[in-house]
Amino acid sequence: MDAIRNNKKLMAEIERIAEVAGYLWTKGWAERNGGNISVNITNLMDEEGKALPALAPTRQLNETVPFLGGNFFYVTGTGKRMRYVAQAPFENGSIIRIAPDGTSFDIIAEQPVGPTMEIHSHLMMHNYLRSIGRQTTVVLHTHPTDLIGLSHCKPYKDSTTLTRMLWSMIPEARIVVPKGIGLVPYAHPGSMELAYATIKQLEKYDMLLWEKHGVLAVGDDIIDCFDAIDTMSKSAQIYFNARWAGFEPEGMTHEQLEELVPVFNLPS
Do residues 114 and 96 lie in contact, with contact meaning Cβ atoms separated by under 8 Å? Predict the structure, then answer.
């Protein structure tokens, strides 16, 4: 569609989404159709694009998202593989338009690809963040092997303990993920239970570990969201590598971690 393809700013963002989808696949974090992405692209849409007709019947949302009324999102498709999103984002994802009253959405470009089964959860998260005044545009969910592994480990089924350990493996972990990582108890994928539990922690954390499932990151830039997950994944790898070598990693001391706070202007 010319209204989409001729919009250079929008296409640049779609290319960034495709770039990250490729990273998720090459990292081994996106087996089969694992993971999903939604990005608020409202500010990138021109008037011609906003007026595009629906390509499929209007879909009702499980919950109203009043703070997203009239907004537009690129969303990866249901059952689609990240490796194919990387190659062909419009054949494996779609642009949707939220109704003004926030009760439904239409698929408007480029093909009638149904959005991820977790679209309701994604939109609830976007809506919640807007409701507390945050203009967050990205929700990224993926399956990092090492971080999921930690969620099976009883000593780390606590956000404070988990964060402290991951921060202590490498200085960049606290610098890049200064709020730490929240832990959401297991609920089956795509469930409203998981969505509600996630929303409860989004005011405190920008990254959440879904127990025995995956990781969710929110932010203003999809590359930054990927980098945050990648950094915490590196910390988990350092921890596991030390354990495989037969010793408990020493980790950075409390004092060493606190030294980072004034240098990098981190929250204490």
Answer: no
| pLDDT computed for residue 190 by the predictor | 84
Residue-range domains of the chain with CATH: 1-23+37-116 (3.40.225.10), 144-268 (3.40.225.10)
| 207 to 128, 136, 202: CA distances (angstroms) | 15, 13, 8
pLDDT 10s digits, 153-193: 999 999 999 999 999 999 999 999 999 999 999 998 888 89
pTM exceeds 0.85: yes
The set of catalytic residues is 118
Per-residue confidence at 268, pLDDT binned at 50, 70, 90?
Answer: confident
Q: Is 184 helix (H, G, I), strand (E, B) or coil?
A: strand
pLDDT digits (tens, 9 = 90+) for 10-53: 999 999 999 999 999 999 999 999 999 999 999 999 999 999 99
Contact call for residues 58 and 116 (beta carbons, < 8 A): no
Write out the DSSP string of 53-97. Answer: PPSS--EE-SS--GGGTT-EEEEEBTT--HHHHHH-TTTSEEEEE
- Contact call for residues 233 and 207 (beta carbons, < 8 A): no
Run of H or E including 98: strand 93-98
